[in-house]
Design brief:
Rossmann fold; 2 domains; 9 strands; elongated
Amino acid sequence: MPYMAMEPDGEGAAIILIDSRVGSKHLAAMIPGSELVQLEFGDAAFEGNGVTVGIEVKRLMDAVQCMFSGRLADHQIPGLKASYDVVYLLIEGVYRPCPQSGVLQYLKLFPNESKDNVQCGRWVDANTGGRQGKRLMYGSFEQWLSTLVLNGGLHLKSTPCAASTAALISSLYAWWMRTDHKSFRVMDETTESVMLSRPSMIRRMVALLPNVGWVRSGILAQRFTGVEFHPNGDLPESWYIENQIAEGTANKIVDACLGRERNGSNLE
């Protein structure tokens, strides 16, 4: 667990730590209340309500290099997961699929000699560099990101530039410092899209009872370990349906009814 410094302002407020090395130290000047330190893993880190958060920032071409080298997946992500409770991967840059070929392209900016402050740029194919550099399809890059998120347990964010990266880090810090987060206490009965994880079968059943609803079901579901079906609802053969439900599925149904669940999700 990395050292979490405290801001000397008399209130003991946690601050945002920024890695002091070349790739991220420029962010400190754009983030109020930040402090430059050398982080073993991540470009930024902070603690909010007892949760340590690490943020790894990758410019687009750095991410492309990591895709081919495997450094992010093999070294950095395991280190980030071991160091922090929550990990964000932030991809910095504007990119797209080439309209004609589907190749991954990024917007390369260049100086504008005019006086109207219009930023100029052009789309450039992303590759590993050099004349023999490999070009990368946009779809392959997005699939790689999806693999990192799903298998690595990361939260993926993207920003167009360094200033937006700094603003997002500040916003994440402010979010993690909050204690209310009322938006997660409401669930439409027709969807579970706002839930951080799928609720247990017992809670979903309790929520359907008269005058219970979603908020009260969270309290009541803690009081029950299972659901009884009569007669013989705890016997797998009671759930058999020829050519539709066999022994394996029937056992899963019984496990769910008896409250034998894993990580808050039923065994369906």
